[in-house]
Please model this.
Amino acid sequence: MKILGIETSCDETGIALVEASGGLKNPRFRVLKNLVASQIKIHAPFGGVVPNLAKREHEKNLPILLKRLLGCPTAKWDIVAVTVGPGLEPCLWQGIEFAKEVAKKFKKSVVAVNHMEGHIASVLLGQEKQEEIKFPALALLVSGGHTELVLMKNWLNYKIIGETLDDAVGEAFDKVARMLSLPYPGGPELSKLADKLTRPRMSGQIKLPRPMINSKDLNFSFSGLKTAVLYALRDNPKLNKAALAKEFQNAAVDVLVVKTLKAIDRHKPKTLIVAGGVAANKHLQKEISSAMKKFPGIQTMVPDPQFTGDNAAMIASAGYFHALKKNFAKPNKLKASGQLSL
Ligand code: KG4
Ligand code: ZN
Model:
């Protein structure tokens, strides 16, 4: 089955064509085309995503990307998969309206996809990927809008067992990056700065909190950590920025890892998935992989670097599961849902 994916939940316009096979038991994906139009340059002067500018860019970029995709000799599809939430509603609507047009023009059915479900499916994409997800699986989803631990009994069977009570971890990275006057998008820049620290012991001289690390539940909180950075800078403007970035990154990752291990201990999954934009963070990947050495029976899956950020290939892939379950949407019932939960 070939699936056309459409993603416009935030500031990346994505259109992709994915060939899926194997059914629910052994899903396999071949990404035939994965086009992403990034809006970094548009939003950079504002230090963050401006929803109406993002919507306008999606409107402009979607037909351009589709035209490029139609130039590819394999450009035929059986269904259309579109992100309906969570995300910025004006942006989501742009993708939905476009999906409706394309479905009508090419007489194909549409499936509605949750953006976070797309991030989960992203671990199956890439040429080298041979592993399959063994259930029950635990997913640590870390992005600009979400930080959640999700237990999956199977595809389309999700239970959120922990989540952030305030800021998402990616949002905290972005806000702290802004405090350090780093360019937008802040998360990767902050991480680069932290990794540049030549004297790692310097970060030990700054002590930031690890919020909720000892709480019994599986929830997170990152807003206090962000405020602690603000106070540290206020009290000592001469603090070494790389050392502060490193200690912030250590603190955020420590909490993510400890809560993930707590969830593993309680729910005994067979697979651990780490996905979402922040899954690109090298320190997080390193700490997860070293912590998982204690659990040789659990396989850890992270997306290939090209699929950690928002893209439409992951939406097309998650759409495959909906198509298998015949969860087709009536085009006039499709609706953007900014707060959609798994
Ligand atoms: O999944 P994503 O691309 O978009 C959303 O669905 O939000 O995630 C974007 C988030 C941003 O907050 C970005 O700063 C963060 O992921 N991010 C990183 C890194 N790369 C992206 N955060 C920390 N380290 C990175 N290397
Ligand atoms: Zn995302």
